[in-house]
Amino acid sequence: MKWKLAAMFLGVSLALAACGGGGDNAGEKNDGSNGGGDTAAAAEQIFKQNCASCHGQDLSGGVGPNLQKVGSKYSKDQIKDIIANGRGAMPAGIIKGEDADKVAEWLAAKK
């Protein structure tokens, strides 16, 4: 029983480390590089760089929950709050500032 608990703890620890691996500059990769182009494309790129390791490239989930229809459950503001403060095993602040706004708006449109 102790081995199962230890193995589960190790697995959860590894999953959290993978999701939180963006570092302090995780959202800075796209600052200004879009040049006023398509916001949805920029948001998708930010998502792929910071979130896809847990939520899947196609939003289907994995370590994190499926986000393919997250907009039917949460508003843009609620999604932004989850990004800022974390929820469950998701660490807080993986994406910050304007990048968090873009991703929240993009995910809120997923219905």
Automatic annotation (TrEMBL):
SUPFAM superfamilies: Cytochrome c
Any GO molecular function: heme binding
Name of the protein: Cytochrome C551
PTM statement from Swiss-Prot or TrEMBL: Binds 1 heme c group covalently per subunit.
Domain of life: Bacteria
Domain Cytochrome c positions: 38-111
Taxonomic lineage of the native organism: Bacteria, Bacillati, Bacillota, Bacilli, Bacillales
One Gene Ontology cellular component: membrane
Record-listed heme c binding positions: 51, 54-55, 90
Keyword line: Electron transport, Heme, Iron, Metal-binding, Signal, Transport
Alphabetized PANTHER family for the sequence: CYTOCHROME C-553-LIKE (PTHR37823), MENAQUINOL-CYTOCHROME C REDUCTASE CYTOCHROME B_C SUBUNIT (PTHR37823:SF4)
Extent of the signal sequence: 1-17
PROSITE patterns: CYTC, PROKAR_LIPOPROTEIN
